[in-house]
Amino acid sequence: MAAVFFHHVVGDLTVGKLEVAELHDNDTLDAAARAIAASPEGAVPVWRPRATPDEPPSGARFLGMISALDIAAFVAVAGIGDRAMGAVVGEVVQPNPGLLREVDPGTRLIDALDLMKQGVKRFLVRKNGTWRGISKRFSVLYYGKWLKNMDSTSPSSASSSRQLSSSASSTYKFCCLSREDILRFLIGCLGALAPIPLSPISSLGVINPHYCHVDASAPAMEAIQKVPPDPCAVVVVETAPDGTRKIIGDISAYKLWKCDYAAAAWALANLSAGQFVIGADDNESTPISAIPEPPISSSLVEEIGPGRSPRAKKFSSRSIGFLNNQLHQMAFRMRSMYRGRSTPLTCKSTSSLAAVMAQMLSHRATHVWVTDEESEEDGVLVGVVGYIDIFNAVTRTASPATS
């Protein structure tokens, strides 16, 4: 069962990975936002500038990681809207060199998983040289097509491979592996991990009951102050008289991935946690209750017809006319930002580990909230499952004796 962890190495996961594109601490938050939009987990590594233009990435120059939540919180505190996005990354990022580890491509997967269970979120791995992935089948997960010359075994191709290796020795190429990459690899090896993936998460001890939460009526900024390092999320709940908590949504780097940071910052500074996570529904018809509705023109009333409520009409810029008030413009941006994001990602305590892994991978999420299967009400929260919980579960019985 555990042979996959001992017979595979980190280099097997680098097939198809792009070369590292560095974000430096003197870059702007605008540049960081663009980098985050193209990265997993809603966060990117931050590096100190190169001493020379051709200096390769290294763990010594790694500074820390910046997330979508970090940017939104900074802009909210700065209170200057879009202008805050011109600030440099160094003003926002919290130094934490332990989040990234430079590893050799020959490092066993079991050793890499142990590092990630200790808090490492990225691996910096060398790509140049004669290293080859285990097979071409993993490349389809990154590019949607086979990489060329991956399965060449002729003498001529071997000779060209050696020439490529010698020429590449003078030019360093590195890629970054994330926990999402590890999870993607595990999804492809479910058969080798049986019967663990088909077991309920409640029986595997995967559910983490220690999570950070805020009440829906609390200010959204209060949630920012409680965000843990992993998973980087705070759940927003409604607490019943019996003490049970019903999930409303969550505030996390994953939820703010690719968001409008100025609008998110305004919401963090002015709305309650409940209003922040609810935002607008898929039809853009849910109002932000803290924002007064703009006046409705008589032509709109005539279009709707007498005796019908104007609020029943679908929310859109055409239905309310031109929003010349800055507050109402921000309300419109808030509605657009949260469309399709208001529903938290949840599973049942009886869900299988494979199902939870598939949820996280398909949504590119860092965590899944777990609700009680036996509760009479929907959404009663019992815990959370994150990357480390999954890695602990799949490696719990891994040892050389079982491989």
Q: How does the SSE layout of this entry go?
A:
Elements (H helix, E strand, L loop, with lengths): L2 H5 L21 H9 L5 E5 L14 E6 H11 L15 E2 L4 E4 L5 H9 L4 E5 L13 H4 L11 H14 L5 E5 H9 L2 H4 L7 H4 L8 E3 L4 H5 L8 E7 L5 E8 L8 H10 L2 H6 L19 H7 L12 H4 L5 H13 L7 E3 L4 H11 L3 E5 L9 E6 H9 L8
Parallel strand pairs: 4-5, 7-8, 10-11
Antiparallel strand pairs: 1-2, 2-3, 5-6, 8-9, 11-12
Notes on the protein architecture:
- The structure is a single chain.
- With 403 residues, this protein is of the alpha/beta class.
- The protein contains 17 helices and 12 strands.
- The strands form 4 sheets. It has a 3-stranded antiparallel β-sheet with strand order 1-2-3.
- Strand 4, helix 4 and strand 5 form a beta-alpha-beta unit.
- It is flat and about 65 Å long.
- This is CBS domain-containing protein.
- Spell out the helices and strands N to C: HHEEHEEHEHHEHHHEHEEHHHHHEHEEH
**How many distinct helices?**
17
Oligomer status: single chain
Low-confidence stretches: 131-170, 280-305, 307-328, 330-341, 398-403
Distance between the termini: 6 Å
Strand arrangement within the widest β-sheet reads: 1-2-3
Report the biggest beta sheet as strand number plus sense, adding barrel if it closes. Answer: 3 strands, antiparallel
Mean pLDDT: 77
Gyration radius (Cα, Å) is: 24 Å
Structural class: alpha/beta
Number of strands: 12
Can you give the helix content as a percent range?
25-40%
What is the percentage of strand-forming residues? 5-15%
Which term fits the overall shape? Answer: flat
Protein name: CBS domain-containing protein
Keywords: CBS domain, Repeat
Domain CBS: 337-403
InterPro entries: AMPK_gamma/SDS23_families, CBS_dom
